[in-house]
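To close the chapter, one final illustration. This time we ask the reader to focus less on the individual chains and more on the assembly as a whole: which components sit near each other, and how the overall shape emerges from the parts.
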Amino acid sequence: GIQVEQSPPDLILQEGANSTLRCNFSDSVNNLQWFHQNPWGQLINLFYIPSGTKQNGRLSATTVATERYSLLYISSSQTTDSGVYFCAVVRVPSNTGKLIFGQGTTLQVKP
Amino acid sequence: SAVISQKPSRDICQRGTSLTIQCQVDSQVTMMFWYRQQPGQSLTLIATANQGSEATYESGFVIDKFPISRPNLTFSTLTVSNMSPEDSSIYLCSVEIGGGIYEQFFGPGTRLTVL
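The assembled structure is written out below.
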């Protein structure tokens, strides 16, 4: 099956710093999503980005589908950015909608 | 997007009992899914809840342990049967909006502890 690898596994930042999270996947996809899981366990949709670039405030994401990777940029990090960031994909061809998750990047932002 | 609610939000159960988790969506959706997240781990798909037919289970998950109902296009339940401490996890339902967009949205999750 498709493999989804995220790096780094853990990241500690000082408030105000910038960071880049990476997601590599081993096969063609028709869905790629970035999520933030907060300390209460809720998954928050950040980006639906099977290809191209999107920006939302301090966050932006880029997916290069032909090279099978996606990047999540966090600028001017805040303590509320702490949590686990997941990348998840749906493999092509697929009519099942099965999301395959990476192992996540645990981010801690210190004040 | 979609607004998804789950009940209960958390529960503590005894070994050998069963718990039914409800998932309600504020609009009709074709695709609904159930995922499990074990402590410190990533999410794994349990099954796809199909409206009007039996759920489709992933490898390693069986209907006797995780029976699923999908009576209509806005509601589904997942039962965790004959629980053991290894079933302690967060259980999340998700929906796919459809219409050529494959984005999924997740409910707030049910945090289950089995003693």
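The longest strand of chain A covers residues 29-37. Chain A has a mean pLDDT of 94. With these observations in hand, you are ready for the problems at the end of the chapter.
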